[in-house]
């Protein structure tokens, strides 16, 4: 008499959105943004007209820009982000394309388990092939469509405004020596913590 067959159930594949690594990544982003904004200077101090004056030379303008960048770093990053957001919102198609590209990187590569091949229309793609497709798609979107020119033009406008303000803002009233370094603040999630979270998702 043959022994009864024990049914074996296949575990359900966990969605990338529900993985602990992805949730930790989102938590890290939220924490980093809150820490960054806690170092933001008052906007009234940024636009105080009493401390606006024309620089006497290019060297003085460069010195002012360097000091103001160090002091108003979070405010300047916020200003750049607002300009980029306004440019993208005024071009909905470019925004949709950019968000789709970002979602593709997140769900098809960064937080997709490495033991699960990508299957599209019945064809299985290896991790190297997936990476190659994403790199080519990113290159095409950034350099061969209007998305790239929109991002570049918005960034140039933002940098021009930041440099103009930094050159005309007199920094004598700023206490640069007492401030904490802001490098671990607003955008720190793009560094090691994000990389470690992505690596953990692919193990």
From TrEMBL:
It holds the Pfam family PRA1. It is found in: Endomembrane system; Membrane. The chain crosses the membrane at residues 71-89, 95-111, 131-162. It comes from the Eukaryota. GO terms for cellular component: endoplasmic reticulum; Golgi apparatus; membrane. This is PRA1 family protein. It comes from Salix viminalis (Common osier). GO terms for biological process: vesicle-mediated transport. May be involved in both secretory and endocytic intracellular trafficking in the endosomal/prevacuolar compartments.
């Amino acid at each position: 008499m043959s022994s009864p067959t024990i049914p074996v159930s296949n575990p359900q594949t966990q969605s990338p959105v529900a993985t602990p690594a992805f949730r930790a990544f989102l938590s890290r982003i939220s924490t980093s943004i809150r820490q960054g904004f806690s170092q933001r200077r008052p906007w009234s101090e940024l636009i105080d007209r009493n401390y606006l004056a024309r620089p006497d030379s290019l060297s003085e303008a460069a010195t002012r820009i360097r000091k103001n960048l160090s002091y108003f770093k979070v405010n300047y990053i916020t200003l750049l982000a607002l300009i980029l957001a306004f440019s993208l919102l005024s071009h909905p198609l470019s925004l949709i394309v950019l968000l789709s590209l970002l979602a593709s990187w997140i769900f098809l590569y960064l937080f997709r388990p490495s033991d699960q091949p990508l299957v599209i229309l019945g064809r299985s793609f290896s991790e190297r092939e997936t990476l190659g497709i994403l790199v080519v798609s990113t290159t095409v979107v950034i350099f061969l469509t209007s998305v790239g020119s929109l991002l570049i033009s918005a960034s140039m406008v933002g940098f021009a405004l930041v440099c103009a303000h930094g050159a005309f803002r007199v920094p004598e009233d700023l206490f640069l020596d007492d401030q904490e370094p802001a490098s671990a603040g607003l955008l720190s999630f793009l560094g090691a913590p994000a990389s470690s979270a992505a690596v953990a998702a692919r193990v």
